[in-house]
Structure formats: structure tokens, C-alpha cells
Amino acid sequence: MTLSGSQSSYVCGATTEPLLYQTVGGALARAAERWPARDALIASHQGERLTYRELDARVERLARALTASGLRPGDRLGIWAPNCVEWVLVQFATARAGIVLVNVNPAYRTAELRFVLQKSGCRALVLAVSFKSSNYIEMLRSMLPAASLTGAGRVDCPELPALELVVHLAPDDIAGFLSFGALMARAGDPAGAELPESTDPDQPINIQFTSGTTGLPKGATLTHFNIVNNGYFVGRALCLTEQDRICIPVPLYHCFGMVLGVLAAVTHGACVVFPGGSFEAEAVLRCAAEERCTALYGVPTMFIAELEHPGFARFDLSSLRTGIMAGAPCPMEIMRRVMDEMHMSQITICYGMTETSPVSFQSAVDDPVEKRVGTVGRVHPHVQVKVVDADGNPVRRGETGELCTRGYSVMRGYWEEPERTAEAIDAAGWMHTGDLAVLDEEGYCYIVGRVKDMIIRGGENIYPREIEEFLYGHPKLLDVAVVGVSDGKYGEEVCAVIRLREGICADAEEIRAYCRGQIAHYKVPRYVRFVDAFPMTVTGKVQKFVLRQRIEAELGGGRNDRPDVGDSPADG
């Protein structure tokens, strides 16, 4: 049966505002023209402050330096560093020179770095000296025979044949590497320092590698057109102007920081504020207060850490009005506290994925509160979305299915992987997200989980998000992740992994008793585990596959005859 438009789970983001046919470098040039004296970039941890005029001048200089170093349009340059001024300079300079920027996850170790450099064919790598427990210089040296570093940052290594230049961000010299300052000095070299006369907005300009939890990482390849427009429309939804200052503790290597943060700011003349190289709750609170930030970004775990910080009440956050909570399901209780206690009455929720540049849905600053805390908003301008069943047919409004996206924001493909690209983007141009969603009659979207995270217990489909939202109402609970673990009788069983509030005690039976009679018996967690912290990605997402592996190993392969510690199974 064919459903009518009003019945079918299909939406298209109508708008009277056209898409921008503009490059990343062009977006900055336009901002420098319109708002030359406005603050563009503040890095509190580096003591750096740049106006748009100053930022544009530094970017132009770096772009010329990269060209003088022999890099040409289409070449790839990797950046491996936490949030800093240099990251932003590289982001815009590569774009201005037509060089494809490769974002390297700051948490990567040697094997992952080698894979990314080989896969993308990076000719140059800009890297920090270290990040947390990782010594980047030593890790790279361990991959390169001593004779490979031939001086002034030049590399000659058979294992990494494309890599020719390595540049470090330290203030002091490091043997074999070129310093960032020395690179910038090359801008005045008359030999080949001219930039391309023009760059094409449709050209690939950025490669972002996915987490690779189910296989080797894939390089989502994005164009100027993809990310400039997504940043612009995210900023428009936040009502950004040149008066705004955005506190960004989320990592730049990910779309959250680079597109929703930097490009949303630049396309509206707002100021980007980095509280630190990586997330630290007190630094965020202090920076937001001292710089009188009007917007704050984060994933739910970041907002939880800020709200629970013992010194939270000391910081004046009254300048805040908006921001974005994204990257993971947003607990309703946490959203309400952020709006009330952090003064972020206009906070929005964003939903998307790297492969779609990333945002497809966003709540509006004036949406009803229940919609802003319970959904991911409505479809973005110029974006099409449908929710489909297992056969690819749109389901009715209110029914669950896989969310698919089509439009300007869909990536060019996975770098040099046509087969994996074809698995994700069908012949009609729809990107299959792997997320389970519901569209209501008004077009608001509810994300109910991942296709792969859905728990199938005895033939019943169970969505972890539903159980998590219920458990957040427990007064002792700080955070929770629900996963499915193998079971010999039912196929899978429900396990709730819980972080309790500081100084609070609870046991598995108390949690199950809270659930009984409130949710269906098959949703009551058979297993309950308490942890001090979750395994997390750098972007703040809980690594549920790690939790699942740990619990299944603990349970000895999910034997059905092993009830949870101190209690019987939760069947009723």
C-alpha cells in the first residue's frame, strides 16, 4: 500500500534561504570583510586572542607557506592535535590552498595512525608533541626508521611512501621535525608560494575517519559545499550573530567542533572560545563565565560533569542563552537542569552523523520545552529524510524504522572505498544511517537507538534508549547505559550499566524493583552492573560495544543458567 505524504515518514526541510556556494576559505574571507575588528578566536589555555582580520591574515600566510613547501591542490595533510589555535589555522589554510585536511583522532595510537596515513596518502602531518598519556613525537618516531627523517621535517620512509613533511607544534626545536613557526616563515618564499586562483566548492576538502567499531575505520569525504552550508544552517538555528561567543570544549577533529563550532561561528561572525585542549569541567565553567560566553556546546556526559562539579555555584553563567547538546542521546532530566541551572533556555538538540556533514535534525530555540527535551527537533533546511522498514519502504508516522538522509549534506563517499560507499548510500542517493527513528505528525524526530544496538529478547524488540530514559528518573542514578548481552534461552538479555551519584549506594535488586510494574517485564534489566566510569570515545560517546564485551566475558558467554549476582532473573 502506498502511503500519502501526510501519513508517510518522509520530510523535506523547506526554506526560502538558498544554499551557499562558497568555499571554507571564502567563508573566512567574507567574515574578515564584514567583521574585521570582532573577536574571532580565543584560546584561553594558550593566551591567544585573534580578530577576524588577524585570523584571516594568519590563515593566508599559512596557506602560502604550505604551497611554498610543495603541497598542491588535492594533496592530503593530516592534523593530529587537541584543540588549539593552530588547528583552526590549518583548517582554513588547507582549504584556501585546495589541500584536503585529514582529521586524525587525538586518541589514536601507532597502528591507527599508520592506517590513516597510509589510507589517505597524507603528504604532510602537523602534530602536537603530546596529548594526555600519548607522546605523539615518540609514537611517530617509532614508525619511522631514524634515517627516514632527513632534516627540516622531510621524511623518506618506504612504509609511508606518500609522507614527505612532518611539522610539530612545540615552541622549541625537535630534531628531524620542522616547527610550526619555521613553516609559517616559508610564506615569504617566492618559489611556488602562489595560491590557486580559485577553488571549487564541490571539491573534497576534508576526510574524517569513523570509529571503526565494526571494522577498519572509513574515511568520510566531505566537500566545502557540505560543511560550509551545514555550519551556516546550524548557526542560523541558534540565532547566532556577531555578538555571540561560543564556548567549545568538544574536539575539533570531529564535526561537532569543526563544523557546528568553528564554521557555524565564522558564517555568522560569532567568536569561537576554546577553554582548553580537551574537556575539563572546571576549565569550561571558568571560561564560559570569564569570557561571558552566550553559547556552550557539549555531549550529555560533559554537561553532567559541569552540573555535578563541586564548585558549580561559584561560576556566573548568566550570559549563556543557547548551545548544542548532541553526540549521544540526551537525557530529559539533564536537559531540564541545563536549561534551568545553566541559564541555557534556548539550548538546542542536534542529530546527525559525520557522513552527513553532520546535522540532519535540530530543535529550534523557541520549540516547546517538551519537544526540545524529548526529540531531536525537525529536519534541517534543504535536507530530505525518510524512515523505512527492512524492505526500504517508508513506514507510517509514529512507527519505528531506519532513518535515511538525502541532500546537499551527504558525503562524497568513503575515501577510495567504492564498495563500502555503495553499502551506505543507495542508488537513489539516500544515506542509510543505521539509526532507529520515529517521525511524529508534526515532523519532530525521536531517535530510539541504533539498529545494531536494538535488543531482541525472545522475539521482542527492545530499544535501550527507552529504558535509559526511564532509569534517569531514579534519584540515586547519575548516568546509565543499557546494552544487550547474549543469552542461551532468549537470544539476548537486558543489562543496565549504572553510574551512581557520588557517595550514594544501591544494589541490583533496588534498580529492578524500581522498574517492576512501571515498564514491561521483558524490559526490566536482568543484569545490573555499577561502574565509576564508562568507556568513552574522545567525542564523549559511551562505547557500548566495549561494555557488552566486558559483561559477556564476565558472564562466561551469556549462559542462561547464570542469574545475576544475589538475585533471580527479572522475568515476571
Set out the fold topology.
Blueprint lengths: L9 E3 L11 H11 L4 E5 L4 E4 H17 L7 E5 L4 H13 L2 E4 L6 H11 L3 E4 L2 E2 L2 E2 H8 L5 E3 L2 E2 L9 E4 L9 E2 H6 L18 E6 L9 E5 H14 L7 E3 L7 H12 L4 E4 L6 H10 L4 E4 L1 H9 L13 E4 L6 H10 L4 E7 L6 E4 L6 H6 L3 E2 L3 E6 L12 E7 L5 E2 L3 H7 L6 E9 L5 E6 L4 E3 L2 E3 L1 H8 L5 E11 L3 E10 L7 H8 L11 E4 L13 H12 L17
Parallel strand pairs: 2-16, 4-5, 4-6, 5-13, 6-11, 11-12, 15-16, 15-17, 17-18, 18-19, 30-31
Antiparallel strand pairs: 1-22, 2-3, 7-8, 9-10, 13-14, 14-24, 19-20, 20-21, 22-23, 23-25, 25-26, 27-28, 29-30
Helix pairs in contact: 1-2, 1-3, 2-3, 7-8, 9-10, 10-11
Using brief descriptors, characterize the structure shown.
eight-stranded mixed sheet; nine-stranded mixed sheet; 572 residues; disordered C terminus; alpha/beta; single chain
